[in-house]
Write a structure and sequence with these properties.
Helix content is 25%, strand content 33%. The protein contains 6 helices and 14 strands.
């Protein structure tokens, strides 16, 4: 009996050593891993908004994407080419690894398992998403009547930027070389933006500033970069790896403080974020 008990003690010790060396079965650092260290809560940067096309399918890691967002910690983030499951994972990492807590709303325009996984009969949602440090209300999700070569749409929420309520739009217009389709989409979006005295319009518009299809938006709003506009398109800093400005933070009656464009290895679109002066009325 004593010898048998010794064998079991030795085996138990071996199992314990293996557990220490191998660690828990939950992937290290997963957004909901019980073994993850507690991260101190952080506040998002007041008055900061961000837009980012995640690039799909590009096979990037949600850990890295979350770290990119956390580096700038905006109050509001508009994401395009976003899979709902991926965004939920990014949101989890933002909380567990960076102490940033966001609410989320999705504006899926299609369900596609090739882009977003899931079973062929239950594919993941794909489209836009908005992360906001404050709760969101009055949610609107619309598909454009004609998406072009792929379904496209916009979403809108009311949330807080700084300490003020503001209407925030997020969109992704039709792909390049579909000017007529984008013109219809931009007109539909502008009609909705015009209903609000103050608004922030985020997104990938797949069009440079001096293209005719963006005219309805320029009539209502200005770019977060005061030096960028349809008549000064050459002064607008590129937001893509192919050196075109396709991504915008349009401001309706809100004054900008500064804007930043940051190339990233995790997408073919740069990160674009802007700090806003919510106490001052812009154009």
């Amino acid at each position: 009996m004593a010898r048998g008990r010794g064998v079991w003690l030795f085996a138990g010790a071996g199992i314990g050593v293996c557990a220490v060396l191998v660690g828990p079965s939950v992937p290290d650092g997963g957004p909901f891993a019980a073994s993850s260290p507690t991260v101190a809560a952080r506040k998002a940067v007041a008055n900061r908004v961000m837009t980012w096309n995640l690039c799909n399918p590009c096979g990037e890691n949600e850990v890295d994407q979350a770290a990119e967002i956390a580096a700038y910690a905006p109050q509001v983030v508009g994401l395009q080419e976003a899979c709902e499951r991926d965004v939920e994972t990014i949101r989890g990492y933002l909380k567990s690894r960076h102490g940033l807590v966001y609410h989320v709303e999705y504006g899926a325009v299609l369900h596609n398992w090739r882009r977003c996984g899931g079973a062929p009969w239950n594919p993941g949602g794909y489209g836009q998403a908005i992360l906001s440090a404050a709760p969101m209300t009055d949610i609107v999700k619309e598909e454009y009547a004609d998406g072009g070569s792929e379904d496209r749409g916009y979403m809108a929420v009311t949330t807080r930027v700084g300490d003020r309520p503001v209407r925030v739009f997020n969109t992704h217009l039709a792909q390049r070389r579909q000017e007529a389709v984008r013109a219809e989409q931009a007109a539909m979006l502008a009609e909705e933006v015009a209903r609000h005295d103050r608004a922030v319009v985020l997104g990938d518009f797949n069009a440079v500033p001096d293209t005719a299809e963006l005219t309805p938006l320029w009539k209502l709003a200005s770019d977060a970069d005061p030096g960028c506009g349809p008549s000064r398109a050459g002064d607008c800093e590129p937001t893509t790896d192919w050196q075109s400005k396709f991504d915008y933070v349009f401001l309706r009656d809100i004054a900008p403080l500064r804007r930043h464009i940051v190339p990233t290895p995790y997408s073919d679109h740069h990160i674009l974020y802007a700090d806003l002066n919510m106490a001052s009325r812009g154009r």
